[in-house]
Design brief:
The protein is mainly alpha-helical.
Length: 235
C-alpha cells in the first residue's frame, strides 16, 4: 500500500503545484540578470521544499520503492517546467533535454554566474597565501605585496576583451583593491552589454573568463555565456 508523502516531504506536490505555477517576474536572459533571477528562483523553490532538486541533494537513487521513484520523476519534471517558465525563449532549447532539474540549474549557473570565477580564484589564492597575523611595518609591506600579487593574478586571468581595462587599472595610483578592480570590470562588462558589443547570435562568449593553471581555478570559453569554474552560492 502506497502512502502519499506529507507536506514536509520533498516529493510532496500540492494541487497548486502545476506547470506555470512559479512565476517570479524575472525572465533569465543571461549573465546580466542571473544573480537576481537565481536568488528569486531559490526563494520560490524553498517555499515549495524543492531546493534539493536543483542542488542535487534529492536524488532519484535515494528512493527504493517504485512509487517513490515515480513521485521523484513527477517532482523533477515539475521543477524543470518551473525553471523553463522563467527563462527567455532563446535559452529553452539549450536546457529542455536535460534529464534532471539539477543538471538544468548547473548548466545555467556555469554559463551565466559571473561571480564564480572571481570567488573561486580568490578563495584558492587565499588558501595558499594566508596573511600574517601581526600589524608591524614589515608585516604591512608583506600584506601589500600579497594583495598586489592577487590583483595581478586576477587581471592576468581576464581574457583579451578586457586588455584596455586591465591596462588602465595597472596604471592607477594608488593601486585599487581586488574588490574595487572587480567592480570596475563588472561595470565595463555591463557597458559592453548595453552597447550591444556582444554578439546576440551565440557565436561569441558573452561572459568574463578566468583562466588558471592546473593547480588552481580554470575556465574555458564555449557556448553562449561562457563556462566557468563551479562554486556554490547559497541562500
Amino acid at each position: 500500500m502506497t502512502t502519499k508523502p506529507d507536506h514536509n516531504h520533498p516529493l510532496f506536490l500540492s494541487s497548486y503545484d502545476v506547470a506555470g505555477a512559479v512565476q517570479i517576474g524575472i525572465q533569465l536572459t543571461g549573465m546580466e540578470n542571473y544573480t537576481l533571477w537565481s536568488r528569486a528562483m531559490r526563494l520560490n523553490l524553498l517555499t515549495r521544499n524543492k531546493l534539493g532538486f536543483i542542488d542535487g541533494l534529492v536524488q532519484r537513487d535515494d528512493f527504493k520503492e517504485a512509487f517513490e521513484k515515480q513521485d521523484w520523476d513527477r517532482c523533477n519534471a515539475m521543477v524543470i517546467s518551473w525553471i523553463l517558465s522563467n527563462v527567455s525563449k532563446d535559452l529553452v532549447s539549450g536546457i529542455l533535454f536535460c534529464s534532471s532539474a539539477h543538471l538544468v540549474w548547473t548548466d545555467l549557473k556555469e554559463r551565466f554566474d559571473k561571480y564564480d570565477y572571481y570567488s573561486t580564484s580568490c578563495l584558492w589564492y587565499d588558501s595558499i597565501t594566508p596573511p600574517p597575523a601581526c600589524g608591524c611595518a614589515k608585516s604591512k609591506d608583506y600584506t601589500d605585496s600579497l594583495l598586489r600579487q592577487k590583483l595581478l593574478k586576477f587581471l592576468m586571468g581576464l581574457n583579451d576583451n578586457y586588455s584596455q581595462a586591465r591596462s588602465h587599472i595597472l596604471m592607477m595610483n594608488p593601486t585599487p583593491s581586488v574588490n574595487q578592480c572587480y567592480a570596475m570590470i563588472i561595470q565595463d562588462e555591463s557597458q559592453r552589454v548595453l552597447s550591444g558589443e556582444h554578439s546576440t547570435s551565440g557565436s561569441q562568449s558573452n561572459g568574463i573568463e578566468y583562466s588558471g593553471g592546473s593547480g588552481g581555478p580554470a575556465n574555458s570559453s564555449g557556448d553562449s555565456g561562457g563556462t566557468r569554474e563551479k562554486s556554490s552560492i547559497v541562500l
